[in-house]
Design goal:
The complex is a heterodimer of chains A (805) and B (446).
Chain A: H1 9-13, H2 18-25, H3 29-40, H4 67-81, H5 95-116, E1 126-127, H6 130-141, H7 172-189, E2 199-203, E3 221-222, E4 227-232, E5 241-251, E6 260-268, E7 274-282, E8 289-296, E9 310-319, E10 331-334, E11 340-343, E12 352-362, H8 371-376, H9 382-385, H10 387-402, H11 409-422, H12 429-441, H13 444-447, E13 448-449, H14 462-473, H15 480-488, H16 494-506, H17 510-522, H18 544-561, E14 574-577, H19 579-585, E15 596-599, H20 613-618, H21 627-638, H22 665-674, H23 676-682, H24 686-690, E16 704-708, E17 715-719, E18 724-725, E19 731-732, H25 735-745, H26 747-763, H27 772-784, H28 789-798, H29 800-803
Antiparallel strand pairs in A: 1-13, 2-12, 3-12, 4-9, 5-8, 5-12, 6-7, 6-9, 10-11, 14-15, 16-17, 18-19
Helix pairs in contact in A: 2-5, 3-5, 4-5, 7-12, 10-11, 10-12, 11-12, 14-15, 16-28, 17-18, 26-27, 26-28
Chain B: H1 8-13, H2 27-36, E1 41-46, E2 68-70, E3 73-75, E4 90-94, H3 130-138, E5 147-150, E6 156-157, E7 160-161, H4 179-187, H5 194-219, H6 224-251, H7 260-265, H8 275-291, E8 297-301, H9 315-318, H10 325-330, H11 337-361, E9 363-364, E10 367-368, E11 373-378, E12 392-396, E13 406-409, H12 417-426
Parallel strand pairs in B: 1-8, 1-11, 4-13, 5-8
Antiparallel strand pairs in B: 2-3, 4-12, 6-7, 9-10, 11-12
The chains are: A alpha+beta (805), B alpha/beta (446).
Chain lengths: 805, 446
Amino acid sequence: MRTFLATTIIFAACEFSTSQAEEKLRADFGNDIRPLLNQFCIRCHGPEEQNGRMRFDTLSTDLIKDRAAAEDWHETLNVLNRGEMPPEDEPQPSIEQLKLLTGWLRTSIDDAVKARRKTGGLNVMRRLNRVEYQNTMQDLLNFQMNYVRDLPPEGLSPDGFRNNGLSLRMTALQLEYYLEAARKALDRVIVTTPEPEVFHHEFDKSNHKKWLQNPTISDNRLDRVSIFLARMEPDYPETGDFLIRVRAHAERNEGFGFPRMRVSIGYRPDTKVILTTALETDVKSSESEVFEIRGRIENFPLPVRGQSKYPGLVIHIRNVYDDGTPAPPKVKKKNDKGKEISVDPDEPDFPKLFVDSVTFDGPVFESWPPAHHRRILFESELRETNEPGYVREVLRRFIRRAWRRPPAQLEIDGFAKFFDSLRNDFPVFEEAMRETLALILISPDFLYLAEPAGKKNRKLTSWELAARLSYFLWSTMPDDQLFKLAETGELLNPKMLTAQVDRMIDDDRAWQFVDQFADQWLNLGGMDRVAISQHYYPDFDYDLKPHLRNETLNFFMTLLRKNRSARHFVESDFTMLNEPLARHYGIEDVLGYNFREVALPTESHRGGLLTQGSILLTNSTGEDSHPIKRAVWLRRRLLDDPPDPPPPNVPELASENPGFAKLSIRKQLEIHLEDPACASCHRDIDPWGIALENFDAVGRWRDEIRRADKEKKSFSTLPVDHQTELPDGSKIENPEQLKRYLLEKRGDEFARTIVTKLLTWSLGRSLDLSDEPDIAALTEDFVQNDLKLRELIHEIVKSNPFLTK
Amino acid sequence: MKSWHLDRRMFLKGAGAALGLPWLDCMAEDQKAKQESKPKRFCSFYFPFGVGLPKEDDKKAQWRWFPKGEGRDFEFTESLKPLEAVRNSVSVLGGLSHPHGRGMGGHDTADIFLTASELRGRYFKNGVSVDQVAAATIGKQTRFPSLVMSTDGGIGEPTRTSTLSFNQNGNPIPAINQPQTIFDRLFGTGDAGVKQQRRRLLSAGSMLDQVLDHSRALRRQLGVQDKMKMDEYLSSVRQIEERVKRSQAWLTIPRPELTDEDLALLHLESDDEAPHEYIRTMYDLIYLAFRTDSTRLATYQIASMGDFTTKGMKFPQLLGFNGTLHKLAHGWNKPEGAEDLGKWDQFMAGLFADFLQRLQSAPEGEGTLLDNTMAFYGSSNSETHNNSNYPLLFAGGNGLGLQHNQFLKFDEKTPLSNLFVTVLDRLDVPVESFVDSSGEMSEVLA
């Protein structure tokens, strides 16, 4: 018999919700299980023979007390799952019998494991993930840079999150790039060069013509095709902060959209144009306004001097407003010399952007060395009079912020010693300091949220609490205010905690929470993995994907900030839209690219996550809806009740039916269900997705399904078949009924799911049995509070798991 | 909430791993050895969900991945037609699989493609992959012990790995997925000049000592699970220490220079939105790494088994094929499906054949780069969800005593790891056995 350790694969792979497993599959050993063992196993594993040293008639069924028996039962589950037993030439149990048996095994083993846990609820030292690392470095050093370009992407935890301490591994490659990023940043943050020359440019006219393909219309008045170009050559900086001021106004007719200004910076080496966007915004006023853009010039593509065919750095401004129609065909026109050329016709209703002027200053700094330098190497006489003392003070201040706690004197001494040891090789003070600070930034105390504790749970310190809060709600390090409250201990006061949470939710950095949490809970990243078929949706614009995503993120944020009920996730009379998205949904009178609350007309059939394009598109094939994916999404994400993963060697759908491919997915699924092997699981899956069949792959309402023929020449149509029956017999005919059903019949599960997901995220670990009382209490409160999202967060940060290591 | 069936004992057992890789002290001797013996290389390529396998008498039989015939007397179908050009350097292997994978979930076997191991415990502990067994020895002879690449990057999740390579302890090695990052590692010199690099390497050495000292102190205050996390960190620090030493030794040896032609090959900016350029560039990077002898070992997972998570899922759609990767794979036995999938199989085989031809066109010693390079290509599903009869190609290495131009059919008694034993032997890293091997694979030997 193999060890327990060696045999847990299938066990862990079966994503059974325990409560559900218990309800559905709890079988009685004497009545249900023993007869099966007697029928199929006992001849070779009983009194007469003990093949594989396995004997069922004497094997204890008390898995909690008898650990050896638990291991044997576990091995049994494994061989059953792998189909290794009974042997092929022996009588085989039916699918139902097998399910009964494995269900009992799974629940019993589950119980045993639960009972054995002794140190539940401990948080594991958690490495900062990519996003947290990026945000933290940026805030710590007060310096914008891509810190994570080379860091490998991170996998998802079993709960679907990317901030789970156990799942976030460390590898040498990772550490190598942490060191590289720290050094690269510190090279720029701490300066050793004298105050640089500042360049100033002013442009009243687009000053460059031969830059793009001919004909390029270089102009101050920007329609669909023209461009404003401001070229700087040779006087532009290659490092440092810059400030661009664009003075511009809109020329538009009432009732039409606003021109949308995109300002980019880049150059043209040869045939390609390389640009990075610095700002994109609606320009609404017909009065001139000034738009200020600040950034680091090295974050933009810079030409290699002397190598470009088109030398110079260029500020490039376009009007990227899209009215949803293709550009009109070109018309012939005579130019100044009387020669006939093709030009784009004037479109009187297309909103125009008028660029009055552009200025560029760089590098800009309010003083030298710049602020980010002085934040670390602060000005002090000490540096001259007592260098060792100065070094220690620099280190103390830096470590306190980097490690999110005050350092011990011994720790400071250690780094100070390191600094001294470098001075021979690094004669310049700043260079040795950069190396020392880099060392602090590859220490585990920085890279991990460490809450050192022995075997027992303990209360968090105020410093640890500040870090937990900031990584929960901001995905970055605490700010000065949180640090201060940590230092005084005031943060431990529940009233202060509540006030801080409110402040944090209303702070801009809360977007970093929504951006990650909503993305991972709802799998919004899935949109990028679906390619939309150009054949089916020739007018689908890929630029719509970010808008779809933003609808969901803004929706989440609105519920959170306005303390609205999480019921809206299921059923809502409003959503968050901007102009391109409203056009996609067929909703009128939404102008401009900013997102705002829009009341939904009933006939839109929209409202709630299930009808948001982001979710519908993610769970499609790019050509058609994918009812199974949609169903699995709903069960996993809204009810925390994911179906079992497909077993090994899933039988293929029968292909004898030559017309199979031509059937609607609904009909294909019906045929699927005729196969009992499929039906046992799919009966509980398919109906959830079928209710959403009226939404196509890109999330638009449809009354018929289009199906392309093999040669992709024409489309045939099929009626939408959206009537379905849920496993409990409830008849569902449309999305509205599905939503009502979810709120009325599955409301508690839904509430519990939200609690579970948020709590999991806030802790950065998977929940376990010891959290059960807290989950129950939080859920009860949540339901009583009408599922108010902000209230829930207040309760979570006051809950025992959140305040305890 | 799915994970309270976590057993602490299972978790711990996997963690007390031995740390660090052996470091070879004498670089000069290595350099000498390198000049004397010709480089021997090995690279592996993986794609998920299997291939089209209509029956041989089916009217779509030309889209059956495996060739017609057997042994020397075989004929490529449409699916592998692009390999005709390099036929003398390719063997098609049929019937092979990893016995440990046969009972695993239909999407779970990518993790063990190069390890042949059983995934153990709650955390699906894997074994060492064949490339890393070789890297422990021949990896010392080059600037980089091995190159680990994939489309999804990182390590992914257990049973949905996004890397093919696993270290001596069975821990996944993160794959790099951005061509620019790979290029910079191989050929870039970074921002700093040599002088600064040298100073920083020296300081990195003492930096890591300092970190180790400090971390040990922190470790003493930790509970059991935290200690494991800390050990993972400490092990990473030690590995970088070795790398730092290695880099010091290599600092005086200039990085290989590439020609304009080489550079023109590469689309370093390409990503998963432009699959053709992207996959090709990844292949090209391996070719350049080999040609410049920057490394002799490479793995590349072209897409992962994460059916809802791999960026590779949309590749066929973006290229105008009829559906996502998973959909194509599922359709192989549906009317029309065989051809849809077959065309994709052919496209993929074409990219692999291009890579082999590029190796073949580069002279090395008396022969070509391909003669000294073994390339292993395939999937751990035959058709989707089926974990036996892997579709496999074994190519190159004609100068290493291998023979090709054959379609070998094996039965289930032959474990795939026999091939790994032979590969390691040809790389001069002889092993008694590899996991469940029962011998070597003499059929591929000349």
